[in-house]
Amino acid sequence: MTRECAPGCRVRASGERIDRRCADSAMPNMPPRFQSLLLDIHARLLSAGTDHEEVLDGVVGLLARALGCPAAWIALADASGTLHIEAVGGTHPQLETLPGQALPHSKGLRGETLAYRCLRTGKTAQARDAVAELPITLPPGATAVLPLASGAAPHGVLGLRAAPGRSFRQGELAFLETVATHLAAVLALRARVAAADEALAHRHQAAAVFDSAMEGIFITDLNGRILAANPAACRITGYDAAEVLGATPALFKSGRHDQAFYEAFWASLRAYGCWRGEIWNRRKNGEIYPELLCVSAIHDDSGQAVRFVALLIDISEQKRIESELARKAYYDQLTGLPNRGLFEDYLAKVLARARREGSTVAVLFFDLDDFKYVNDTLGHDEGDRLIRTVAERLAACLRSEDMVARLGGDEFVVALPGIPHMHDAATVARKLLDSVCGPVALGTDEVYVSGCIGIALFPDDGDSPDLLLRCADNAMYGAKELGSNSMLFYRPEMHTRSGERFAIGSALKNALGANEFFLVYQPQFRAGAQRPVGVEALLRWRHNGEVITPDRFIPLSEEKGLIVEVGEWVLRTACTQGRLWHEQGFSDLRVAVNLSARQFRERTLVPMIYEVLEETGFPPAALEIEITESLTLSNANSAPNILGALKEMGVGIAIDDFGTGYSSLACLGRYPIDTLKIDLSFVQAIGRDPRVEAIICAIVAMAGTLGIALVAEGVETEAQRDFLLGRGCDVIQGYLVGKPMLPQEFDAHFASGLLPH
């Protein structure tokens, strides 16, 4: 507050009589009788030796008598916002029963009562024929309810019921609003000193209020020079009392307010005798802070303004909370990255600029693989740590004009404005994948992070933030079908596939319970044998008469967390069928079951396999678990223990798709592998690519040296079979020797002793 906005009304701390000209100054347009009444009300409000209830009863009694009202009341709000009657005055015989009662919230079909409307809006509420305003029955009549507000919102109301046939005139309402303003201020001060000794004289009580008030109080002369400052004012401003006495409020001037601000301030003081609002001031240490300031003028007996009193409240914490709420509304709390709302706002602005400039904008949608596993196995704290690490790595790869945001869970989006060409977006996407994907240390564990990115372009794929995000999301799911650490640009046909994915995903939830899954078994033959030495169990799904291929539903099962339950069903079904075949004479038949990455990460995997073998009676030595090389790499810490436990149980371990993953030789030396399955991509290159043939020969030689069995997958021609047999791989699997078949087909073929083709 500067000298230009010297504080306005001073509440007298002495017992001096307040002059009648106070009313003239406060309300110059009011009739003399209101000036006198205002003087009497001031006297009661500031009277010494009178308790809280007596003061309020006296005030409403004066108002009721002066205005001829049968009822007047003051009600204060509790913490829940319910108004309780504090004081009453008037002639109605039932008024004395009201103190302590709650005011009614509503008046039936006519909506909320005037009191709660006033409390809610902070404005005077009135009606010509109000009813149900009090818990007693009054004849209909004009009613006015005025807010008692000394802070940001009203904390009570002043209500009056006019005599029958009478209404409140504008001058009376203006007078009542002045009374309510002063009444509210005094109520606030009295609340601060409720514990003070009520037997003290008025002078001592005022001094105690001044010294102990939580609000800062300055008392100044008419020139704005500070005459007194309470401890709270010194604490708020950082100055000692001796430093501010004799100074003007210009000492605290922040420089944030212009001349118009101060002109409005003085206009309010001249018109209403007070000013209330927010102001920026400066502390002694130079810090600029927000302050809620209420300035009022106090007059002497002759009606002349003699002092100003300013009540100030430091609202820095309130503003900080408001700022924090705004931050929470636009930023992700875990990573500090922008959230969806802020990202979409930013993207809308970027797109608008791109339309004007004719430039391209890329939206990248990034999703982690198997994040749920980290949460489930390592705990949410480690999951949060992983998300923060990914966020940091993504942000470190981008330009200042780019934005990365977290949508939630393990989903992130990136906006790249001004991308010259498609390949530039692909370059950034690959840079992001290279930065994020790889090992991450989480406590004592190390997790191999992988993910996929979908890319959508403006204007080719969409012209709104929502559409571009959906297109990039669809492209991301397409990338996931290509495998980990893949990226893919959006194509229009992905929209149809997105709808199909949704339909399949919804149906998957009920597939197991509806018995829609079934197994087929593809035989494995040793050279020259007419009976299979093993079978691989393969999952199929029949839904609404259609057999849905595994590539359409297995990734969705992984994504939706259904694969663990489905995988257990596959194992139990395959072992049950294997035991039946053993009982039918196929005692040497081995059954191979594929294990998904999600299953492998379950802590209950080994106990589950043991339980299934016990329940079905299938020999552990006849079961072979197939895993991929990449699975062992991404679970480098847990894989040795899991595979070792299975080996101790007697279960065989096979590496599927051998030669297509990373660290093939390392996994052979580290894990107890029984079988290598040569991937069909190698087999199909036989006769066409001598280099691949050389790799096959190397795999066969290495397996022979290590004593590891071999199975070649995808054998479809006799030339492929002859090449493999000639190089020492004598167990083959593929359509040349047997397609995947149902158990009854399998039984029919081998019961007749025929080799299926």
From TrEMBL:
Residues 359-492 form the GGDEF domain. Residues 275-327 form the PAC domain. PROSITE patterns: EAL, GGDEF, PAC, PAS. SMART domains: EAL, GAF, GGDEF, PAC, PAS. Residues 202-246 form the PAS domain. CDD domains: EAL (cd01948), GGDEF (cd01949), PAS (cd00130). Residues 501-754 form the EAL domain. This is EAL domain-containing protein. It comes from Pseudothauera rhizosphaerae.
